[in-house]
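PROTOCOL LOG
Step 1. Enter all chains and additional molecules of the complex.
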Amino acid sequence: MKFVDEFRSSDYSKLLVETLQNSSRDKINIMEVCGTHTMAIFRYGIRDVLPGNVTLISGPGCPVCVTPQSYIDNALDLSSREDVIIATFGDMMKVPGRKSSLLKKKAEGSDIRLVYSPMDCLTIAVDNPSKQIVFLAVGFETTAPMTAVTAIEARKNGLSNLFFFTAHKIVPPVMEALVTDKELNLDGFLLPGNVSAIIGTEPYEFLSKDFNIPGVVTGFEPVDILQGLSTLISLISKKDYSIANDYKRIVRTDGNSQAKEYMDKAFNIVDSNWRGIGKVPKSGLEFNRDFEEFDALKHFKISYEEYDGSSGCRCGEILKGKINPTQCPLFKQACTTENPIGSCMVSSEGTCAAYFRYYK
Amino acid sequence: MSTITLSHGSGGIQTNQLINDVFFKYFSNDILNQMNDAAHLAIDFKKLAFTTDSFVVNPLFFKGGNIGKLAVCGTVNDLAVSGAKPLYLTCAFIIEEGFAMDDLKIIVKTMAEEAENSGVKIVAGDTKVVEKGNVDGVYINTSGIGVIYEKVNINCANAKLGDVIIVNGTIGDHGMTILCERNNFGFEGDLSSDCASLNTLVGCMLEVYNGIRVIRDATRGGVAAVLNEISDSSNVSIVLEENLLPIKEEVKGAAEMLGFDPLYIANEGKLCAFVPEAQAEQVLLAMRTHPLGRNAAIIGRVTNEMGKKVYLNTIVGGKRLVDRPSGILLPRIC
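Step 2. Run joint prediction.
Step 3. Record the structure below.
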């Protein structure tokens, strides 16, 4: 099966659209948590084919968007050090700090390297023994296991010049914060496919048991999303509050046990600040004592007060799904993809970037 | 000598040896061989097209070509899509000290072959050598001159309501190949640059119908970039059909994994042509008889619905904006 073709089939899509159009007429609010879902929904014009009673709300599932500006500013400070090489995912390059960005610092001469995986840092560390490599470890459960694996490999290879500036977060706790927000009035969740590939479906059961909110684990192709929505709307209208899995080709109920083991081995779960949302209890990952030698903040003896940095922009309300970007006064005026003010605009998975690129 | 040294760029004996043993050996023609400071050209023309481009690709060698092939095809294509018959190119090399002579010979030989293939002569050139680390191997600039065909009026501002948009084949091949090779992803499959000179294809299209309104080659920024430029210049709306976009399986798969959209990925052998609807079928059929147009396809049209931008009718029946590309293409985190 060619997954890209089969799950982009026009014929299947049209069948599913028909099913959706003939489904419940009740007003339904669905949150799609994951930034990749936000982008895919726009990219395929899925809002255009939904019945009018269904509202899709974009949630905070964009790791770059929810990283406080203080993290970026500290990363920029580290990049100014002659003896430091910063290794980062591409998404972080354009995020604006208070005064600069990694892309601008790179143009000014800082050694900042784009990597596709933290494992690339092992080679950089070996090739540059006199430098200190700092990987900007941002991302959810999809990426955190790779940070853990890289640290384990670094230890195995006796590398002492590789460090991680961690800002990993985990998704289920922020969903709990959203579901208890009366202003949102959510009826169901499209659950993030890639995160679920790691954690499985069990971590979402609290939505069903404690809050009577169903969720459907969904993939990212148009047929996936339409199928996920169809299943979810059916659950909602039948008042069936189950957690369903419509991404079985990738997601198992118990997730990826090896990946979870690596995370357990290397990290503690801690409280974490989500930009625009505030402190979410037990929603962040930090190296535990056994791995603290890899913690960049401890190594460079840096401590700082966290700050959001969302001056004037309404990213916070957008991340919580309370408004959409068109309701932010800065959208497409002062804040554009070329000159982003908030991280929702700069990240390729950000809600504002999605609206900017695709909204008609 | 097996490597380029600073002496090769100093204008003395070694420079002459390099010019004779490498550049003149492969580029030899009656004009170049006169060895004047400028090429003397006798051209019969009403209107000339004149262009320049510089090439800094990394890696220098990739599946489907190398920097030299790009340097010839890129400038030939800029002339061709302007409705001109390309005639003469110049080329200037900036070479890093220590560059392997054998690699330079491969690049220059490729350029000579591509120039002959395109029917152009390389008639003037320059060579500079800079210290190690000051360029990435080699950079090449080519400028080109061509005579615009009579009765042809191709201009970015000419697109009109009802025009149909044709591409000559699969999109995103070059950019995806370069990205995958640069980062050593190890994807398997038929991923290869589409680098090619389009002048004979354009000639074939104009012979069938010389009223083609716009032709642009879709290089950096991909099809999305050129269509946005044309939408702006011509002040028209463009609607594309997602199910008609020709995209290789390998490009679809790699783009999906990395979070890229093939509409925004560079091509080096693809053009977009705006043709009045009445003539579209005959132009399409003519393109499909040419080796570089076998997979030619109509991908959209100029409309008057909505704002003066580029839109896409998606495979699920929705519609979305195809905005201008902004900044550098960066893969997503997760």
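Step 4. Note key features.
Chain A is about 40% helix and 20% strand.
Chain A has two domains: 3-62+171-245, 69-170+256-299.
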